[in-house]
Known about the structure:
Elements (H helix, E strand, L loop, with lengths): L3 E2 L21 E2 L1 H9 L6 H5 L7 E6 L3 E6 L1 H4 L3 H21 L1 E11 L2 E10 L3 E7 L3 E8 L5 E8 L5 E3 L3 E4 L4 H15 L5 E7 L1 H24 L2 E8 L4 E7 L5 E7 L3 E13 L2 E10 L5 E6 L3 H12 L2
Antiparallel strand pairs: 1-3, 2-11, 3-4, 4-13, 5-6, 5-12, 6-7, 8-9, 9-10, 9-11, 13-14, 14-15, 16-17, 17-18
Helix pairs in contact: 4-6
Amino acid sequence: MRNRVSGYERNPDFTRLLPGYNDSVHQTDVNGLLQNYLNPVTLEVSDIYRDIEEKFMYVAEHTSKVLTLKPEKGILLSNVPMLLIALALFFLGPVTIAAFAKVTTLKCDRPEPERVICELTSSGFVSENVTLIEDLQGAKIQSSTDSDGDTSYKIVLIANNNKIIPFNNVSSIGGTTDSMNENVDKINFFINNVAETSLTAREDDRFIVSLFASFFMLLGGVPLLFLTLRKTLRSCSFDKNYGQVILKRKNLLSQGKNIDERLDNIRKAVAHHEGVIVNGNKLYKVKLSRKVGEPIFLYSSIDPNEITKTINQFLEDE
């Protein structure tokens, strides 16, 4: 039967993904969509960079000459949920750009004094949508307030029978922008002056949407890189036949790093509390104390006594 050593189980708090935006920054409608589906999930990025080592170790082999410790197989998958969240956040950036980073152009012609024909073209990185508008009546800035009390503003076109057509997918939070006001004035001036024969109004949302999307790519990319490259303990073997201690560490790319140490240089296994408290329990770092050199870190645990006792008994036995 395996001897288990219980250890530290980190439960990062994911309760808020979206930061607040000041009044001068406008963002896409995806903001509200994300708040609906992700709120109140928060991410403490500091949790990602702490030592999140194996939570359970077991004795894979124990003879008079060899002692081998390994993490439970399930523990090697313990970072999969965070990895999936990081992947989702990273790819949310390109998805946001593909869906909302567009250039919207309104072109209108007046073939007759009382007739206006317009074409609204929305061009993105992956698609282009063209809407034909006959009898355009004008444009205005439409406001809406969400449940948090934040007011957003966007341009809408008024067609025949007071039909409302969104000019683009981007809203301004906290106030209107100069570009929005200029385009509304330009459209209404064209509609109200029959001497004007053509109109071109344009809104480019690519920069602000790309800036917004880069936040998600950074938020997901940094922990994704960390979790992918981070080498975790896969085995620790004490071998009296060869007089060696071998620690094997690998990352998700199967890149490894082995630590070989002389067995006679290992003094004992120790557990140090370094001031971290987890759910009321002290978190210990289990290390191999060396006669010459710095201690070798093994893993973190809230109950290190069994593993340190097993190692020390093995080292003491002749």
